[in-house]
Amino acid sequence: MLLPVAAAALLSLGACGDRAAGAQEQRADRDRPIPVVVETVREQPWIDSLRALGTVQARESVTLTAKVSETVQQVHFESGQEVRRGAPLITLSGQQQFAALASAEAAAKEAEQLYQRQSQLARQQLIARASLDTQRAMRDAARAQVAEIRANLSDRVIRAPFGGVLGIRQVSPGALVTPGTVIATLDDVSRVYVDFPVPETELAGVAPGQALAGRSGTYGEREFDGTVNTVSARLDAGSRAAIVRGDFANPDHALKPGMLVEVRLARGQRPALVVPEIAVQQLGSETFVWRVKADSTVEKADVVVGGRIPGKVMLREGVKAGDRIVTEGVGKLQAGAKIAAGAPAAAAANGLQTATRPAGSAAR
């Protein structure tokens, strides 16, 4: 009976010894420094570039419509044709107006002749001055009637208000058009505008005259050169962004209204705090780096990212020049952990860093 009890006691003592040894090993593991790579934060030259998606707008754009209800007599253009300012596009039938013009011109001629005769009589004081004034008013009214009919006849010929490229023709000879009937579109695309949003936090670095570069997915790597034309005087209350208008030369009409263009705006070189991209951690809404303290332990340092390029991040806030941060081995760390710092495998280059920052997203 004593043997089983003794055996149980021995087993219990062995288990307690194993637990104590395991706890001691865990404490040793916690106290053992974690090997990481550490770098010192320093200022480097940085070219800050703003990136945004914009929409192409024609320099001048209009939808051509008729002013009157009439039948199309002649069409003088084809779809996609390039025309000059003042070129006739559509001639509408105007037979009734021509007849009315002939009648009005005859009445105006008769009124003029009668006025001349009465003027002679008035000089001889054979008629009252009031009669001459009445005839003068009748002559002027007849002249105004002629001018009105001629203006109506001019509305029968629709002309290009400016030079540009016509869209698809919407009417044919013999068709009845009414005010508002679309005849075609006309766009001046020799130069185009690209409108893109810029958040209010970035507006201080945007001004008319700055150089722009644009790319469209339609043309692959081809770049279009432009300049900032205008910065909107108002911000959108919802997005807190202003519309910036870029002016782009478009001699071959490659950029078309409505096309999506990626715009980049370089805002000059300046010194900035640049760290390896791998050092910056993102956890939910937190953005932080592991900063090394004097006792070789680490702490979280919340940072604000100001721009990115492949492999590099520019930090606006959270660290300062001279701080030491962990760049490799960050996955093993927690606040207060002791580290064994090693040198980077390759020293960071001291050359120029160029950042591209999306204009539609605020840096955190």
Structure description:
The protein is 23% helix and 43% strand. The chain is α+β, with helices and mostly antiparallel strands and 364 residues long. A six-stranded antiparallel β-barrel has the order 2-9-12-11-10-13. A four-stranded antiparallel beta sheet has the order 6-5-3-8, with no helix packed on it. A hairpin with a 5-residue loop joins strand 15 and strand 16 (298-302). The longest helix has 30 residues, at 2-31. The radius of gyration is 41 Å and the shape is elongated.
List descriptors.
elongated; single chain; six-stranded antiparallel β-barrel; alpha+beta; 3 helices; 21 strands; four-stranded antiparallel β-sheet
Strand order of the largest sheet: 2-9-12-11-10-13
What value does the Rg take, in angstroms? 41 Å
Count of individual helical segments = 3
Unreliable residue stretches: 346-352
What overall form do the CA principal axes indicate?
Answer: elongated
The strand count comes to: 21
H-E order: HEEEEEHHEEEEEEEEEEEEEEEE
Strand content: 35-45%
Counting helices, strands and paired strands, the structural category is: alpha+beta
Largest sheet: 6 strands, antiparallel, barrel
